[in-house]
Amino acid sequence: MILNMTVGIVDLFLVGHLGKDALAAVGVNRVFMGFIFAFIVWAGTGARVLVAHAAGAKNFKAVESAAKNALLVGTVLGILLTVVGTAFSGPLCAIFGLTGQALQYAREYMFIIFLGCVSNFILIVLESTAGGLGNTKTPFQIKLMMNILNILLSWTLIFGIEGVVPAMEVRGAALGTVISRFLTLGVAFWLMKRHHPELNLLPGPGFKPDRATLKRVVQIGLNTTVHRCSFAGSRMFMMWLVGLAARPDASIALAGYAIATQLLSLSFMPTWGLGQAAGNFVGQNLGASNPERAWKGSVLSLKAATVYMVCIGFVLYFGAETLMGVFANRRPGADAVAVVATGAVFLKLLAAVRPFAGFNICLSQVLIGAGDTRTSMLINLIGKWFVIAPAGLYVAQRYGLQGVWYVFIAGIVIDGTAHFIAWMRRRWLKIRFAEQPSSAS
């Protein structure tokens, strides 16, 4: 799962030499892409849950139906998001307090990134299908290939090759990302066919969309999309608050916030991986009518996630300045020092609540794997928008940047506690989607 974050980390690292404006522009976009990712996982979540339950019930005809219908949903959503995103990329960038060159960089980067939405949707559905089948190898291979291509292409397009490829700077980072995802599509379909020859996932004249399956994919994924929109939207709202608290020149604060949030996201990817593995395990065992085994698997996953998050909290606290410097000090100067200092304060404060973040990340995936996408959605909606958002708006104007950091921490504690309570109630253990195939089939 670390490879999910590497694309954004690579882009931030490579544009670091261009200064605070480029860092702020790409950083703001990476946070905003978290909101877009909420839509990208819509079809993927439906595929993962339905495939896991069908695989647990040994109903492989239902596995293929779920995957194909999810691919159809993903393609349609990808096209819609591309049209809307490219049309409104300019105004979207202007709301975060960027000005001058930083705003221009952000607009160029966002417009190009939106052009790659369809390939992103399809890749997520393929990875989710493999995950639902208990196959973690194929998603890893897909992400690895995409990251290798992204590093090579982004490096080439950002810096250029004299006499061959012009240096495209921030635009090059976006183009490298989009092209690498498109090229990875062919590899992804080939890997799925190789590891799951019983499944035919390519579109063909014999495929007819199944309305019942399409409805399930949309319904299951919708709650998760609302959940992630709430989460990512709150991140963007916090980013807006950072810009508000740091005006008139918000580039330094925004760059520090963006780098810090990318580092935080990278740090919790192992926990996310544990949660997704537990979610797949839970879905398969509930599909096989074995809730006790599903519970035990979730307990082991939570214990491992908690131990890891405690350890990573120490790393973030004592290594905050060094980690921030990897990105901000690519172009040394007073601005770089200020970016490092701003982000380091944020990282150190958040290090203390890493276990609560682990509860949130791991247990939300367990609930989603069981098919209970509604609970996580409600936790995020209520906690983020009825508690944290009003508090954040108040403290940003009264206490400045430091107040914004403390509100961010409060949000993590609330989410983690609520998910832990929902998990302990065990209602999710009663959910069933798949039916056992008849002996005639």
For the structure shown, list the relevant keywords:
441 residues, 15 helices, mainly alpha, single chain, disordered C terminus
- Global geometry: globular
Following the backbone from N to C, one meets helices and strands in this order, namely: HHHHHHHHHHHHHHH
Query: What oligomeric assembly is this protein in?
Result: single chain
Judged by helices, strands and strand pairing, the structural class is: mainly alpha
User: What is the number of domains?
Assistant: 1
Weakly predicted, low-confidence segments: 436-441
The CA-CA distance between the termini, in Å, is: 37 Å
- How many beta-strand elements? 0
Mean pLDDT, all residues: 85
Question: What count of helical segments does DSSP give?
Answer: 15
How would you characterize the overall build of this protein?
It is a single chain. By secondary structure, this protein is mostly helical. It has one domain (2-203, 210-430). Helix content is 83%, strand content 0%. The protein has 15 helices and no strands. Mean pLDDT is 85; it is low at 436-441.
Ordered list of secondary-structure elements with their pairings:
Blueprint: H1 2-15, H2 20-56, H3 60-94, H4 100-114, H5 117-132, H6 137-159, H7 169-195, H8 211-246, H9 251-267, H10 269-287, H11 291-318, H12 320-328, H13 334-351, H14 354-370, H15 373-425
